[in-house]
């Protein structure tokens, strides 16, 4: 649209709005002339009024033999001298006939050449209703020829339409048949009566018939005129109808001399008929009566009313124009038209639909519509119209000509579908597609649309390159698909339309005898809202799946997408546009975001990154993905991943397109996973199927006392600090292999660390990726040391009670019986000593059980330490006190001798067993302490006894749960259990000269290196 066209459209659009508010005829005319002058420039513009339309007379009640020529006078003008003569009727007719400006050569009527009055050289006329004519004239031919005659006529016709509609509206609001108009009615009354006599005509004098024609007689069901002459008109109507006619008609006849209305006539046979009755006073006592039977018309009107009701209730805007009338005006609009445009029926009817157009309407579209109507062809197009309030809306308009039996166009039916929302959704879809392309750019993923309603295929450059072809129809697309995959490819495209659900397929592109390309396609229905059958699809080369494609897929899974468009203003990123998801994430309206620096919504760290070099890198295209933190209006933070690419206009970088991925939910999930992973109650390691450790949690690192770097990246089956229970017949390597095959493996094992040996419940769980592949194995262990020791404690206690205590009870029964029957006092004293020893044994048993129970509960949490020399001396002293005949030698050679205070109990028990072995006299026991090369303490207790039985040695060394049959049973278990809980080991060597028991325990200040211990010693 040129600038001149825009001025014209603005002027006419504003004229339509102004005329809708105008209440006077003069004001409406003045506004019209001003608008035309603004559109056409320097020209003489006049509204002429035809006097013959108002002043024709029928004094003799005879129709004129020839119609008189119209006589015009100026009603309003702009740009003409006051003495301008009225135009000649022949000149006006010539302008209408030629449909172009007429050249007058300065002569428009009988004016002498030397007359001083001004006449135009060129002039153009268009009608304004039945009484007025609008003209525009130019004093110089050059001015006229410089303008396009068709364009000028279009302006005048549209302005005349607007003015005619306004005048009709104003007249309908103020029209009263008084004054000049009433005079016109009376002057032409008799002539009008004659002209209306096409049906039944009668003359009444003093309300009785004095003349009647045969049509009148037949209409009312009589046989002859004589039956009616001299009779009152009331006899032709029912009493109540006659009273109504008299009440309504006689007042109008007395006031105006004329009345016309609907009546119901009655016939002698009792039937009735609807009629239009026209009464005109000719003399004070005489009137002319004209009647027309409208039965057929009412039937048609009833039918039309039903059709109009159907149209009114239609869910779409319908309008009908009449091309047989000047300007092709609207003759019908339905209720949906009123709702859509905001114009009432009275404001729309009588006007050409062009009044809906405005400054934003496309001139080419309106020209196509006008051409289709001029050539009587149907047309469907989309255009921008305006409501009565001046608000724009988009409509899909279909105009169809309606022809009569002779093929002549009698009407045009226009159907408007409001597509404003559809266009908005399409625009949003286009924006989303652009954002999708932003994320997918560089990932070898393309986008395409398959429209089955139009049989078209549209692929972007990336997908065309991937396919290696540029199909434009669905048939062409099917041709490039490998023959065996065509059915699956077609199903993937049709399925979203039929079910509404997305679809995905991997298909081959290429002919049967050529190299094929594997492509992943993901399809979704295109929700454009217009009922079209189309799908959108993403396609990517699956022949070699690039890492960037995998990265993009992961990027989409991170969280919601937020879009921002920035413009570089003085080197600063200023937000030029954003989507609603971005403003909603910040907790404010989009209007509060647009125009603000992007840094206003960053935290300090993100702002520093942006202002240092982040924005500069984004403008240059170097910034791929970065982490940023948004700050909401409430002060909350939203962690995001950011991707930005340069935005160009006319090949110049003006800003960036920025995609934020809200990863707040992902981070919450990650934190939850980390909390589980780093649970202080669970030992966790992540292992690849090839047995390489990829990560371990802090709890496991602390428990085994080895640096993380010495674990990660190494094979898990090579570490000596983890062994599985041999009773389950499974090694670490075998457990990993079975988990790698998809099996959940659960077993028990032992974990060696600086705090000793821990019994663990361990599981090997396979972890699968999105493709179902096992990529990791989670090795999870739970410390069940206390539970295991409590179980062992209970088992030992049960055995002791079952065997030792039961035997003691049998002895008690025997000795007490003998004691009761023994008469000798000395013998009774011996029996009593035996009973006392049994009870003393029970007391010692109870004490040991209490020590074991306390140790199980307290050792894991007791960090109190003492010097090894103090522990050794305390244990030796306790045994000396009970065995004064024993010789116990102690020697300590250790630089770092700090140990747990709980070591006193097992060491005391070892020394006590060494002294009591074999019930020998003058037992000798040596206790020596030295520090081994690995920093651990080695405590050696040797005796000169007969040697420790194999069953007791097995308990101490391996922890075998074999029933023990003598009083030292619980003491042996106390040694084994407490040394193990302290992280130590027990070894026993029996020779011909006695027994050597070795306790190896860690110091409190040194961690043992698990690699220095043979795996066999950890079983």
Could you please describe the fold and organization of this structure?
The protein folds into seven domains: 3-175, 2-Layer Sandwich (Beta-Lactamase), CATH 3.30.450.40; 180-293, 2-Layer Sandwich (Beta-Lactamase), CATH 3.30.450; 299-418, PAS domain (Beta-Lactamase), CATH 3.30.450; 444-544, PAS domain (Beta-Lactamase, 2-Layer Sandwich), CATH 3.30.450.20; 558-667, PAS domain (Beta-Lactamase); 678-783, Beta-Lactamase (2-Layer Sandwich), CATH 3.30.450; 848-1018, Histidine kinase-like ATPase, C-terminal domain (Heat Shock Protein 90). Mean pLDDT is 78; it is low at 54-68, 107-112, 176-197, 545-553 and 1006-1019. It has 1019 residues and is of the alpha+beta class. It is built from 31 helices and 38 strands. Helices cover 39% and strands 27% of the residues. The strands form eight sheets. The protein has a six-stranded antiparallel beta sheet, with helices on both faces. A five-stranded antiparallel beta sheet has the order 2-1-5-4-3.
Percentage of residues assigned to helices: 25-40%
Gross CATH architecture of the largest domain: 2-Layer Sandwich
Major sheet description: 6 strands, antiparallel
Low-pLDDT segments: 54-68, 107-112, 176-197, 545-553, 1006-1019
CATH topology of the largest domain: Beta-Lactamase
CATH class division of the largest domain: Alpha Beta
What would the keywords be for this entry?
1019 residues; Beta-Lactamase; six-stranded antiparallel beta sheet; five-stranded antiparallel beta sheet; 31 helices
């Amino acid at each position: 649209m040129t600038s001149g066209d825009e001025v014209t459209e603005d002027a006419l659009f504003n004229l339509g709005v102004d005329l809708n508010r105008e209440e006077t005829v003069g004001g409406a005319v003045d506004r019209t002339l001003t608008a035309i002058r603004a559109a056409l420039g320097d020209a003489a513009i006049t509204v002429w009024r035809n006097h013959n339309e108002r002043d024709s007379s029928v004094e003799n009640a005879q129709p004129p033999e020839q119609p008189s020529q119209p006589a015009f006078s100026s009603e309003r003008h702009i740009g003409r001298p006051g003495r301008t003569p009225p135009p000649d009727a022949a000149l006006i007719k010539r302008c209408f006939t030629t449909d172009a400006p007429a050249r007058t050569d300065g002569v428009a009527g009988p004016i002498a050449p030397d007359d001083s009055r001004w006449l135009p050289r060129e002039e153009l006329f268009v009608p304004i209703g039945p009484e007025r004519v609008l003209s525009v004239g130019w004093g110089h031919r050059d001015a006229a020829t410089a303008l396009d005659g068709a364009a000028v006529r279009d302006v005048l016709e549209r302005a005349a339409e607007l003015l005619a509609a306004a005048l009709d509206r104003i007249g309908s609001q103020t029209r009263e048949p008084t004054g000049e108009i009433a005079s016109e009615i009376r002057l032409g009354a008799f002539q009008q009566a004659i002209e209306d006599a096409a049906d039944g005509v009668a003359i009444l004098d003093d309300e009785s018939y004095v003349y009647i024609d045969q049509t009148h007689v037949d209409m009312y069901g009589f046989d002859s005129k004589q039956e009616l002459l001299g009779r009152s008109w009331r006899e032709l109507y029912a009493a109540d109808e006659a009273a109504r006619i008299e009440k309504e008609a006689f007042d109008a006849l007395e006031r105006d001399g004329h009345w016309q209305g609907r009546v119901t006539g009655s016939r002698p046979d009792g039937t009735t008929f609807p009629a239009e009755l026209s009464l005109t006073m000719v003399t004070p006592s005489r009137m002319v009566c004209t009647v027309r039977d409208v039965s057929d018309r009412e039937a048609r009107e009833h039918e039309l009313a039903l059709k109009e009701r159907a149209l009114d209730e239609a869910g779409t805007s319908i309008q009908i124009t009449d091309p047989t009338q000047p300007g092709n005006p609207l003759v019908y609009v339905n209720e949906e038209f009123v709702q859509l445009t905001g114009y009432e029926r009275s404001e729309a009817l009588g006007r050409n639909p062009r009044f809906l157009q405005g400054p934003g309407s496309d001139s080419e579209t309106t020209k196509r519509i006008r051409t289709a109507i001029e050539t009587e062809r149907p047309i469907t197009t989309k255009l921008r119209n305006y409501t009565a309030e001046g608000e724009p809306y988009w409509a899909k308009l279909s105009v169809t000509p309606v022809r009569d039996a002779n093929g002549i166009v009698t009407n045009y039916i226009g159907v408007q579908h409001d597509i404003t929302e559809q266009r908005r959704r399409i625009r949003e879809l286009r924006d989303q597609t652009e954002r999708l392309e932003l994320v997918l750019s560089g990932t070898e993923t393309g986008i395409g649309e398959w429209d089955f309603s139009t049989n078209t295929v549209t692929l972007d450059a990336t997908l065309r390159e991937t396919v290696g072809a540029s199909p434009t129809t669905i048939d062409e697309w099917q041709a490039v698909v490998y023959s065996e995959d065509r059915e699956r490819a077609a199903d993937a495209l049709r399925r979203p339309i039929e079910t509404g659900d997305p679809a995905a397929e991997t298909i081959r592109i290429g002919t049967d005898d050529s190299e094929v390309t594997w492509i992943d396609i993901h399809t979704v229905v295109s929700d454009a809202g217009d009922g079209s059958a189309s799908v959108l699809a993403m396609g990517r080369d699956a022949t070699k799946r690039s890492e960037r494609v995998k990265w993009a897929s992961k990027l989409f899974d991170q969280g919601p997408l937020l879009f921002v468009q920035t413009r570089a203003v003085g080197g600063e990123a200023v937000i030029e546009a954003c989507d609603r998801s971005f403003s909603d994430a910040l907790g404010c309206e989009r209007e509060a975001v647009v125009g603000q620096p992007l840094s206003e919504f960053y935290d300090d760290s993100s702002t520093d990154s942006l202002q240092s070099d982040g924005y500069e890198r984004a403008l240059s295209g170097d910034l791929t993905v970065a982490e940023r933190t948004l700050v909401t209006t409430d002060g909350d933070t939203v962690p995001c991943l950011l991707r930005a690419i340069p935005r160009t206009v006319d090949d110049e970088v003006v800003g960036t397109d920025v995609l934020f991925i809200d990863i707040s939910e992902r981070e919450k999930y990650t934190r939850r996973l980390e909390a589980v992973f780093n649970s202080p109650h669970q030992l966790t390691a992540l292992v690849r199927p090839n047995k390489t450790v990829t990560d371990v949690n802090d709890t496991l690192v602390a428990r085994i006392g080895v640096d993380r770097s010495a674990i990660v990246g190494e094979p898990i089956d090579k570490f000596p600090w983890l062994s599985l229970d041999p009773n389950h017949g499974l090694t670490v390597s075998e457990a990993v292999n079975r988990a790698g095959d998809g099996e959940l493996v659960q077993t028990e094992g032992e974990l060696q660390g600086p705090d000793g040996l821990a019994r663990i419940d361990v599981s090997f769980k396979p972890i699968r990726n999105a493709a179902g592949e096992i990529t990791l194995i989670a090795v999870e262990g739970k410390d069940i040391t206390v539970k295991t020791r409590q179980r062992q404690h209970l088992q030992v206690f049960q055995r002791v009670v079952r065997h030792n205590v039961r035997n003691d009870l049998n002895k008690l029964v025997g000795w007490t019986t003998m004691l009761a029957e023994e008469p000798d006092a000395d013998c009774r004293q011996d029996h009593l000593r035996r009973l006392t020893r049994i009870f003393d044994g029970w007391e010692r048993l109870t004490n040991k059980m209490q020590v074991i129970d306390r140790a199980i509960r307290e050792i894991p949490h007791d960090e109190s330490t003492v010097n090894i020399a103090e522990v050794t001396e305390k244990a030796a002293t306790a045994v000396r006190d009970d065995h004064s005949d024993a010789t116990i030698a102690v020697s300590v050679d250790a630089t770092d001798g700090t140990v747990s205070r709980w070591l006193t109990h097992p060491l005391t028990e070892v020394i006590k067993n060494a002294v009591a072995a074999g019930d020998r006299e003058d037992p000798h026991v040596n206790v020596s302490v030295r520090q081994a090369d690995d920093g651990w303490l080695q405590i050696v207790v040797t005796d000169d006894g007969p040697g420790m039985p194999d069953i007791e040695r097995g308990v101490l060394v391996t922890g075998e749960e074999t029933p023990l049959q003598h009083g030292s049973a619980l003491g042996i278990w106390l040694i084994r259990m407490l040394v193990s809980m302290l992280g130590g080991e027990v070894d026993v060597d029996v020779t011909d000269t006695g027994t050597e028991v070795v306790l190896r325990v860690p110091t409190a200040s040194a961690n043992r290196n698990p690699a220095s211990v043979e795996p066999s010693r950890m079983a």
